[in-house]
Amino acid sequence: MRLEGKVAVITGAGSGFGEGMAKLFAREGVKVIVGDIADEGGRRVAAEIGDAARFVHADVTKAADVQAMVDTAMSAFGRLDILVNNAGYAHRNRPMLEVDEETFDRIYAVNVKAIFHGAHAAIPAFRATGSGGVILNIASTAGVRPRPGLTWYNGSKGAAITLTRSMAVELAPEKIRVVAINPVAGETGMLATFLGEDTEERRAQFRATIPMGRLSQPADIANAALFLCSEEAAFLTGVCMEVDGGRCI
User: Fold this and answer.
1) Of these residues, 55, 89, 108, 153, which one is catalytic?
2) What is the pLDDT of residues 11-30, one digit of tens each?
3) CATH number at residue 232
4) Residue 184 domain-assigned?
5) Is 153 considered catalytic here?
């Protein structure tokens, strides 16, 4: 129960990394707002967690949807302590000039502008409690050690890393910590996008670039998130932690 009594909003929590975090946080005492644009997955995760969770349909590119998640946290549980900006979007691995403008705009809306919307919604809620808070951005090793074929996605995650550090400096006097996790690609629904196509040959090529020889799992990201959002990390802000099996060394 390392986060007992805390309330968290987690975006993209209906599958993958977000689902892993939502379920682990709930086991550790957190009341969770499960935010997702995919209703089926979001409702399933909230139901599997039980009374400690509420599902909110949310498109993180829309300020009103992000605000609705925070408002639900406040009305259902009376406070907000943690915001996890986890929802992400990527273009399929391909040469940069083959990615159209609509896809580019969607990538930056989900991966970057959503952090802006989250700040506007969550920071006033943190201030209302007077006890600080934590914003955790799920960035990527793509923002640290870019892979070919993912140029525009790489750039969006680089922006998320820089935003994390800048927000951390500005918000530190208010005891609002801002941290990030940079996962290496994991066994989630987005894997085929990163690989171009999900074949065993492509997976083997990808695994060969990771010193520990495997892709990330939702549990890897959830465990790191739990630490960064807990009081054990109370003196950490601006940290962008690689959870990558050595990929960025």
Assistant:
1) 153
2) 999 999 999 999 999 999 99
3) 3.40.50.720
4) yes
5) yes
